Request: fold
Amino acid sequence: MTLGILLFLLSASETDLFVPFPSGYSVTVEGDVCTVTVDRNEGFYSAAYQAPFLPLVSRVFVLPGRCEISSVSASFEEPVSAEYLSVPLAGAPAVQPVGSSQRTTLTATSGSIKLEDSPVSVHTGHILNAFTVVTCSINPWVYLSDSLLLGLSPSCSLTIEWEETGQPSNLSVLQTEMVNFRAAAVADRYGFENFHTISRPEADSSTDYLIVTGADYLDEIVTLENLLGTKGLSWQTLSVQEIASGWPGIDTQESIRNCIKHFVFDEGSTYVVLAGDETVVPAREVYTECEGYVEFAPSDLYYADLDGSWDENGNGIYGEYADSLDLYPDVLLGRLLFSSSESASAIFEKNVVYAGVNQTETWYRNVVLCGAMLFPAIGYAGAKGCELMARSFPGNFDLTKAYELSSGDHPDTYFPVLYSGAGWNHYAGHGNNRGVYWIDNSAILNIFRMEGFSSRSNQGRTGIHSGIGCHTGDFTDDGVCLPETLLTLPDGGGVAGFFNTSWGWEGYWPEIGSTERLCNNTVHQVYVQKAPSLGAAYASAIDLEIPNMTGPYDRVMQSIIAYAAFMDPSLEVLGVTSFNPIPPAPFRIVMLCSNPLISGEDLRFKVTGISPYYSVSVFDLAGRTTGETVSLAQNTALTMETNTLSTGVYFVSATAPSGKTVSASFVVLPI
Reply:
């Protein structure tokens, strides 16, 4: 096994200059208070109850190897166009889980915000020791509650310093493909440009795929093993009983996790499947808390995120914020739910049938999107998240939509498509472990109930299912849960599913919630980013949501812990084209002059990328602009005079219409 060589220029610090909310913001008066909104791709909301309700900015750094952050600092240019609001700014409302009937109205905040040197939050995570992802949430606002003054910093500078604590792991070919895909997705989504992938090693792993199951199911597992062989994957199957006696741990769950760590870090394994429900492969119950809701729920992320112990403080309670959770999966892991030989055979056979579907068939191009009215008092409808998800499906897919709005769609709108076979089926409704529902819980308006679905057949055309409802995937509750029913029906249901083992969380309407983003990101990574496997799409969806986490037990942290994958993680989704598009020109600033410059010499540069134009500014080290922001066409040279600049270091910053920003430094020397 050879070491993947990084193409980074290693350094101990990185400075990010950016313009917050380049598309601007709007103020809307709602009764006695007002709210501030920005483009959904440029900011997100997260605040303590009744704190000033203002959007934050996420800035992300993707660093080589395993690093620990030593310092983070931010500087802001003072607002130049502050305004006095006509009514007070709203305080952040109390966010409720999907399924709660209680709603709070917006009321004025008594809090104020001033520009601070420290970010709102900093989170560091590691992907297989190959990349370190650092997320900083920034509040670029000034708000004074006594005078109702609101201002936005026109430019911000964020600097992080770090120490390298470990070289990248020895990675197999498949592991390299996985970490490159995921790290590139994070860098692309959050505009981090100083990023390079890991070179492909020459050797492969000894075990691509680890199967963990009960000793009673080794005969049924042969079907899955044969399927993996047709994919060219090497595998090893271990029973829970073997692992418990062969790997250390304070309980069986820790022994299984230590076994997985061995295969991932020493054998180069990329995939792990937990074959069986909690009676076959025990689940780790973790602590969940958010907005006053506290419970213990199963989370298989415990088996996928292999950093730390998940019980760092040693109190026997797993998943607490004090346990310094990393949350980034180090392995592509899924669970296949069954508790009998018959159900095990059914689910393995489904995967074989799905993998053998002739590409000339078209049923997998059908999509079902069901959106319930989640909170009528404020118009929070699942339809919005469904419509955002719809953008990710290929143009040749047929989408059937049923939304609980004034149109009065009922199950007869989509049941025919659902039961005849659809490639992806999404349910944005309230839920429990028995089903997903409209807000009107009468039988005719149920999206579907487990007992009703189990009586139907879709003739072997079993697709993928996802849902945002609370507890729909809680497989440790008494009885059979919804995803287990879907996956084990011999001639119906689905081949894979994504459901919550605990609460599903809403957003600050009209922003969609964390649970909705996780589902949407999974679909986007499958069909738009063309993830190499369903497991890679799921892990990448988690990667993309972590930057929205701002503190202990917030809705993002709890949504990630609850978002469970019931699947073979190596599954290749039908309908995903495999073409390799021509890569776009990199988004960067190209200097066309000497650097350093002698005072008085012209600064000359251009901006490359796919956008037709960019907003360009020059900043000093304090983050202050040295002149007006100008609009520059793509790949067009711009000349700027430097005779008004003092000697020192400066930064050129270019912002695309999407909000992505790159920067380059230059030095002015005395004559």
Summary: The radius of gyration is 26 Å. Residues 34 and 89 are 5 Å apart (CA to CA). The first strand starts at residue 13 and ends at 18.
